[in-house]
Structures are given as structure tokens and as C-alpha cells.
Design brief:
The chain has 25 helices and 16 strands. By secondary structure, the chain is α/β, with parallel strands linked by helices. The strands form four sheets. It has an eight-stranded mixed β-sheet, with helices on both faces. It has a four-stranded antiparallel β-sheet with strand order 6-7-3-8. The chain has a two-stranded antiparallel ribbon with strand order 1-2. A hairpin with a 6-residue loop joins strand 1 and strand 2.
Length: 775
């Protein structure tokens, strides 16, 4: 290892220190990390630098397309007409003022002016313009598309079906569809804007500018004037239609009221005739008088029935009938007299004779006959009294029921007549109301005729358009500039987006962000793709006897005439490896990569050559037993190598003799030997560990080339046997995720990853040349 001279302070004493110790402070110097804003800005600029072609392509494509499009656009001419929309004067429901004069009040409706602005751009008005100017037959006026006219025939059937719902005929809808392209062409070039006054505080006016743009100046003026004239005419027609419709409505209502009054009067007469209503005056109402008389007679009959019922109920009591019949029987008095006389004679006979005397028995027989006759007379008299009372009661009851039935019937007739009278009065009131409405309608009809006679149009043309002389568009330069600005911004944004979405490692900063590695070395890209540090590169033939590269051998060997940036890159890598071990020197190094084709073999070769130039004894071992390449790079035979040493138990001296010295580059090379299927088991065996230790004891540096980590475990196993590991990633091809997985595989087994090499790094050569040109 070389030595350099250092001077301390002001002493003139020179000291010789190792080169690695002299360079160590510069590599371990702590620098202030850049701010986050500066880092983001640098990332943006780096993304733009890498994808400047995206920005250029997008900007050129859009700007060129817009310039071509604007160049093909014809000149546009603009004509302007102006209309004035005054307040609309209306009458308040055709009402008269207190003085009897009609009032016309101007209505300041905020929505009225906005409505007129909308009407000016509606298809109904523009269709009238097309038909008035016959634009569908004018060759100078060509709509942008007439495809809708082809659908007229097919759409007719649908319009026939829907015309009843829309209130228009099929012909009108077909005409509207036919003229739709011409209406759309007018709408595309039409601009309707209210005029604002800038010189006074009140900005609003009642003026509307109608501006139309077209490629033909006469067409632009004719269309603008036609829109203004049609708008004025349509407004007058609307007012006329409104007044006519109002007059027709009033006359129709008057006729309806007259017909209704006649029908109601006829209905009133028929109702009075059917219900026998002669008069609704209470003094002349016979139905009510009869009801009152029947009510009085019913009360009397009810009292009479109650008295007869009471007498009859009393006569039914025991002994009551006999008592009531006493004095009413004349024969009973004579019988009682004869009975008294016989009883006296019997008494006289009993004074003289006994009861057994025949004469006494004869008197007793006469007395019994008279008593039986007297009883029969009394019984017949009481029955007669009860029968008379019963008959009287029944007569009174029957009279009461008859009067009650007559009263109920008369009351029903009275209620029916009252209901009929109420309906009669309702009909009378409806007739009177309709007569009042008829009088009011007749009065309003006269007022409407007076108003319609003095009606005026509140919309008129204020200024007509003339054919313009100079075009107003299109703004070719402005639109092209806008397209350039937008496309430039879009291109920059797309380039930045692609940069953020790019997962490839392209710079040392990308590697430092993706991997927590202690050091990163960048190996530059040299010339075109065919001269990059990739294993696909082929170099010129050299004589194999002289130890040079043979025809078809791959790899780039660092020699004395190597480009300066490449040589400096490997010097930095060599110095980084020396400093990575700290006080402990790294003797055994493993060079590996995550994916095939990232340049690990080339890095191993040139790292070994760079280390040998310090005067160290270096051994380069090809441990890629699956796809070896070192023997083809140096033109060596591969009959005996690492695989044979691992397969057989060999002595240390024999293992040392297996290495082939390369005098031109000052290194020894141990080829892989014949390929074997169980390479992973061989590389992880104790024999491999002994070989590494044996070579490390003899050589200053042992550089081992291994298979890729992503597909085989050979490299992971070898990383546990060496002092340090160099991980190779290829700029523009290696992804961040792949590099992280490879780094993590090494960290999981405790490998000492002392550095990462970024192969084919862009910009390193350019920075180097700029430095020396400035010097």
C-alpha cells in the first residue's frame, strides 16, 4: 500500500502515513444535510433533466397541432345590432280607478329583462330567422353539421306518436329537426349581452347588443339584423296574441255565464212546479196552517183519550163496576121492592107458623127467585158500564192515532216544502251571483277593448348592423401561445409524474435514499451503449499467449489506457473499501448483485485490478458455479478450479497452485471449474470456509464473484464467509424494490455490506470533463 506525506501545523516535519489513513478524514467528514425544499427542488430538476424529451415532445406536439389547426381556420367577421327593451305596461286586472279612468302601470320585473335575453338565443326565434332569410338555401351559410337532417324521415314516426302529448303537429317537429343544424350554427356564432354604462354609478341599461360572427361579412350583418327584427316582431305578436286571447277568454266567459243563467232560471221554474211552491211567504203558506190545526186537534184527542183510559182503568177495579151501575137499572128497584115485601110477609108468617109451613116455603121460593133476578140485573148493568167505558176509550184512542198520523204526514210535507224552499233560495242566489259576474265581465270586456286599442310595442331596434370590413378572429398567435404554455406545463407535470413513478435507481442519491449503505460509488457510462460496463460488451481480440482478452470474451478490464473517469471511479471504490473496515482491514470481499446483467463480474475484475495497483497481492475467485465468466474474460481454461477444490480434500499448497497468475494485470485468478448441480451446498461447506481463510492468509485481498442474489442463495451463503460485501446495481435497470430485497437478504444473515456500486451512472463523466476543462 502506498504512503503519502503529511505536514502538521507549522512544523516542517514530514510524516509518512498510510494512504487510507490520510484519506479517511475526507470521507468521514460530516456535511450538513440539504434542506427538504432544496432536496425536492433537486429531485424535480433531476426528473426534468432525465425526461426533457417528454417536455419537448408534448410541447411540440400540442403547440404544432394548435398552430396547424389555427392556420386552417378561416377569418371571422363580427356584426352587431342593438335592441332596446323598455318596461312592459300592463293594467291591473282591467280594473278602473276611483275616477273611473283605466290605469296602465309599468311593471319593473327583474326577471323580465333576463327573460328577454334568453328568448333572443332560443331555437324558436332562430328558426324564424332561418326561414325568413332562407339560410337553408343560402350557399354562403353552411352549418357545421347537417347530420340531424338525415334523421327527419326516421323521426317522423316518433313525432306522430308524441305530437298529441307535446301539443304540436308532426310536421312542425319535422321542420324543427330539419332546421336544427342551421339553428346550432347561428347559436355557435351568436353572442347576446346587455349593455353596461361605465360612466355613471348606475351601470344597468335596457339595451341589448346582438353580435353574430361568420366567415362572410354580409351573412354576419344579415343574421344580426334578422335576429333583432324577428325579436321585435315576435314580442308584438306575443302582446297581440295575449290581448286577443284575453278578449276571447272574456267573450267566452260572458257567453258561458249567459247560457248558465238561462239554464238556472229554467231549472228554478221546473223545481217550483215539481215541488208545488206557490209562495215562500209564511202568511200564505196553507201547509203550515194545516199543520198547526192538526197539532191543536191532536192535543185535544190526546187529553180525551187519557180521560177515557182513566175511567176504563178505574172500572176494572173490583166492585167499581157495580158501584158505577147502581141507579142506572130501573128494573132493579122494582125487584128490590117486591123482595122487601116478601121478606116482610115471611117475617109475619114466622110469627105464626114455622119455617116448614108450606106458605113460608112458598115465600122463600119467591124470595130466591127475586134475589137471583136482582143479581142478574146488577151483573148485566156492571158489564154494560165497563163495555161503555171500554168503547169510549177505544174511540178516543183511535181518534188520537188518526190525528197523529195526519199530523206526521203533514209535518213531513212541511219539512219537504222547507227543504225545497231552501234549495229554491240557493238556486235564486246562484242566479243572482252569475248575473253579477256577467255584469262585471261585460264591463271588463269594454275596458279591454279600450286598452287593446292603445297598446304599443315596448321592444324596438335601436341600431342595425352593417357588414364588417376587418376580421376579429381567430386569435391565432394568442391561441398558439396559450397552447404552448399549457402544453409546456403539462409536459413538465408529466415528466415530473413519470419521474416520481420511476422505480429505477439512476443516481447515487437514489441509492442512498433506497439503501442505508455506508458508501456509494458511481461507475460512469462511457460512450454509447456498446461501451458501457455491462457483461454484454465485447472487445477486440488480443493474443491469448500474451495473457490478453481473446475474441468474443466479455468484460472491460481496467488497463493503463482506461478513460480517466473510469479509472477515478475505481480508485474511489478502492478507497471506500479500504475505509469501510475502519481499523480492521477488509481482506476478503464478495462482489454480488440482485439481478443478472447488472455488471457484478466486471466490477469484481476491475476492483481486483484496482487493488493490485496499490502493490497488494490480490486473488480473484469465480464463485459463480452456475454461470461462470472469469475464464472467458481472461482467456483461461476452466478444467480445474473452485468446484474441483470443493469436491476433493486438497492441501493448502495445492489450493494455492490452482490460481492462475495474470501478469499483465498483477492479479491471480481462480476460475470456477466445471459446473456442478449442488453448488449451493458446496459454497456453504466447511471446505469453502477453509479455502477462504487459506487464501486470506496468503493474499492481501481476495475478491469473490458470486451468482445473483434474486435467483440463487449462493451469494447469501458466501456473504457470511467474507469480511465485506460489495452490492452492484445498474443505473436505469435496477429497481428500488429489487435493491432493497437484495440488501435485506444480506442484512438478514449478518453480512457486512461495506458499499454499493452504481454501474453505468450518467453524468459522472460529464462532471469530470467539466472540471478539467475549467482547470
Amino acid at each position: 500500500m502506498g504512503e503519502i506525506k503529511l505536514m502538521r501545523g507549522g512544523d516542517a516535519e514530514l510524516q509518512r502515513v498510510p494512504e487510507a489513513d490520510a484519506l479517511r478524514p475526507f470521507y468521514q467528514l460530516d456535511t450538513e444535510p440539504p434542506s427538504r425544499d432544496r432536496e425536492r427542488l433537486r429531485e424535480l430538476l433531476d426528473a426534468l433533466r432525465r425526461r426533457w424529451w417528454v417536455v419537448v415532445a408534448v410541447t411540440a406536439l400540442f403547440t404544432g397541432g394548435m398552430a396547424l389547426f389555427m392556420a386552417r381556420q378561416p377569418d371571422l367577421y363580427e356584426a352587431e345590432a342593438q335592441v332596446q327593451v323598455d318596461l312592459e305596461t300592463v293594467n291591473t286586472a282591467f280594473a278602473a280607478s276611483k275616477t273611473g279612468a283605466l290605469t296602465l302601470n309599468p311593471v319593473n320585473d327583474p326577471a323580465y329583462f333576463n327573460t328577454q335575453l334568453q328568448i333572443l338565443t332560443r331555437p324558436s326565434l332562430l328558426r324564424r330567422v332561418v326561414k325568413t332569410l332562407e339560410l337553408d338555401k343560402d350557399p354562403e351559410f353552411r352549418p357545421a353539421s347537417t347530420s340531424s337532417t338525415k334523421a327527419t324521415a326516421t323521426g317522423a314516426t316518433k313525432t306522430d306518436r308524441d305530437s298529441a302529448l307535446e301539443g304540436v303537429s308532426a310536421e312542425e317537429l319535422a321542420e324543427a329537426e330539419r332546421l336544427a343544424p342551421y339553428v346550432e350554427a347561428i347559436q355557435d356564432g351568436l353572442k347576446v349581452e346587455p349593455v353596461k354604462e361605465t360612466r355613471l354609478p348606475v351601470k344597468e341599461t335596457r339595451l341589448i347588443n346582438i353580435t353574430y360572427s361568420h366567415t362572410s361579412p354580409p351573412v354576419a350583418a344579415r343574421v344580426a339584423n334578422a335576429i333583432a327584427s324577428t325579436f321585435v316582431t315576435q314580442n308584438l305578436e306575443r302582446k297581440s296574441e295575449s290581448g286577443t286571447a284575453t278578449g276571447d277568454l272574456l267573450q267566452q266567459r260572458i257567453n258561458e255565464l249567459r247560457t248558465q243563467i238561462r239554464e238556472q232560471e229554467k231549472q228554478l221554474l221546473d223545481y217550483a212546479r215539481n215541488h208545488q211552491i206557490l209562495s215562500l211567504d209564511a202568511s200564505q203558506n196553507t201547509v203550515v196552517e194545516r199543520l198547526v190545526g192538526l197539532n191543536r186537534q191532536l192535543l185535544e184527542a190526546e187529553n180525551e183519550r187519557k180521560l177515557a183510559e182513566a175511567s176504563y182503568r178505574a172500572a176494572l177495579e173490583p166492585g167499581a163496576a157495580n158501584a158505577l151501575s147502581e141507579g142506572t137499572i130501573r128494573e132493579a128497584g122494582e125487584v128490590e121492592t117486591q123482595l122487601t115485601q116478601l121478606r116482610q110477609r115471611r117475617a109475619q108468617l114466622l110469627t105464626e107458623v114455622t119455617e116448614e109451613w108450606p106458605e113460608v116455603k112458598e115465600v122463600d121460593g119467591q124470595i130466591a127467585v127475586l134475589e137471583r133476578q136482582l143479581g142478574e140485573l146488577r151483573k148485566r148493568a156492571s158489564s154494560t158500564v165497563v163495555a161503555n167505558l171500554s168503547t169510549r176509550y177505544k174511540q178516543a184512542l183511535a181518534r188520537e192515532q188518526a190525528l197523529r198520523a195526519a199530523f206526521d204526514q203533514q209535518r213531513g210535507e212541511t219539512l219537504t216544502q222547507n227543504e225545497a224552499a231552501v234549495n229554491y233560495k240557493i238556486l235564486q242566489q246562484e242566479i243572482e251571483t252569475n248575473k253579477g259576474l256577467l255584469d262585471g265581465m261585460l264591463q271588463r270586456g269594454k275596458e279591454h277593448e279600450a286598452l287593446f286599442a292603445g297598446m304599443r310595442n315596448n321592444v324596438h331596434v335601436n341600431d342595425y348592423a352593417i357588414a364588417p370590413r376587418a376580421p376579429v378572429g381567430p386569435h391565432r398567435l394568442l391561441n398558439t401561445a396559450v397552447a404552448f404554455s399549457l402544453s409546456l406545463g403539462f409536459g413538465i407535470g408529466l415528466a415530473v409524474l413519470l419521474g416520481f413513478m420511476d422505480d429505477k435507481l439512476r443516481s447515487t442519491e437514489d441509492v442512498r435514499k433506497a439503501l442505508p449503505t455506508p458508501s456509494v460509488t458511481a461507475v460512469p457510462t462511457l460512450g454509447t451503449r456498446s461501451h458501457r460496463l455491462l457483461p454484454h460488451t465485447r472487445f477486440a481480440r488480443r493474443d491469448a499467449a500474451a495473457g490478453s482478452v481473446g475474441d468474443g470474451r466479455e468484460g472491460l478490464i481496467l488497463d493503463s489506457d482506461a478513460p480517466a473517469p473510469l479509472a477515478e471511479a475505481f480508485r474511489h471504490l478502492r478507497t471506500a473499501m479500504m475505509l469501510a473496515g475502519g481499523r480492521k482491514n477488509l481482506k476478503t470481499l464478495l462482489v454480488t448483485s440482485g439481478m443478472p446483467g447488472e455488471g457484478k463480474t466486471t466490477m469484481a475484475v476491475n476492483t481486483a485490478i484496482s487493488l493490485s495497483r496499490t502493490g497488494a497481492l490480490v486473488l480473484l475467485v469465480d464463485a459463480d458455479l452456475r454461470h461462470p465468466r472469469l475464464h472467458s474474460i481472461f482467456g483461461l481454461k476452466n478444467e480445474r478450479g473452485l468446484s474441483t477444490l470443493l469436491s476433493d480434500e486438497v492441501e493448502e499448497t495445492e489450493a494455492l497452485r490452482a490460481a492462475t497468475p495474470i501478469g499483465e494485470h498483477g492479479i491471480d485468478v481462480l476460475t470456477s471449474g466445471p459446473t456442478i448441480p449442488q453448488s449451493a451446498e458446496m459454497l456453504s461447506s466447511e471446505q469453502m470456509s477453509r479455502l477462504v481463510n487459506a487464501y486470506g492468509a496468503v493474499y492481501d485481498y481476495v475478491v469473490i464473484d458470486s451468482p445473483p442474489l434474486a435467483f440463487f442463495s449462493d451469494g447469501v451463503q458466501l456473504s457470511t464467509l467474507v469480511d465485506g460485501v460489495i452490492l452492484v446495481v445498474n443505473s436505469g435497470d435496477s429497481s428500488r424494490d429489487g435493491a432493497r430485497r437484495s440488501y435485506q437478504l444480506l442484512q438478514d444473515v449478518g453480512a457486512n455490506v461495506c458499499g454499493v456500486v452504481l454501474n453505468n451512472a450518467e453524468g459522472v463523466k460529464l462532471d469530470y470533463e467539466r472540471y478539467y476543462k475549467r482547470a
